[in-house]
Amino acid sequence: MDHSHHAMDHGDMGGGSHMCSMNMLFTWDTTNLCIVFRQWHITSNLGLVASLVAVVAICAGYEALREGIRRYEAALSRRVDTVPRQSREQVSRRAHVVKAVLYGFQTFYAFMIMLIFMTYNGWVMIAVSVGAGLGYLMFGGRTPATKETACH
Known about the structure:
Subcellular location: Membrane
Family: Belongs to the copper transporter (Ctr) (TC 1.A.56) family. SLC31A subfamily.
Protein name: Copper transport protein
Keywords: Copper, Copper transport, Ion transport, Membrane, Transmembrane, Transmembrane helix, Transport
Order of helices and strands: EEHHH
Helix content: 55-70%
Structural class: mainly alpha
InterPro entries: Cop_transporter
């Protein structure tokens, strides 16, 4: 049964040339490459280069976020230690709520990077790795390089 007519991009009226290509196998092909969203559709070499730079920045930003959270937690720990004993539990509970929100945001960010990587496009995969490396170089001075490679 032929279902090819269902795959047509409705804005193209038959050509299908503006449709996002979703590969489930590794590829270097960037024809009709979309990154995560249909709106992030790469249609030119300039668009590809700009997108790869954006991916590098996004991944470096993740490392900046992780470092910011580490610094926040260290400052928070020092603050809790200076609070009078009778107020410590209340301050600790509020701090835990803030840390939970930050953890949720960090996890969301990590999964979005995972989705970017899962385009299975070699150029995008390299950009993710370069961004992670640059981010570590710029922001990970106090983090061991042997950190776990879990999604978050």
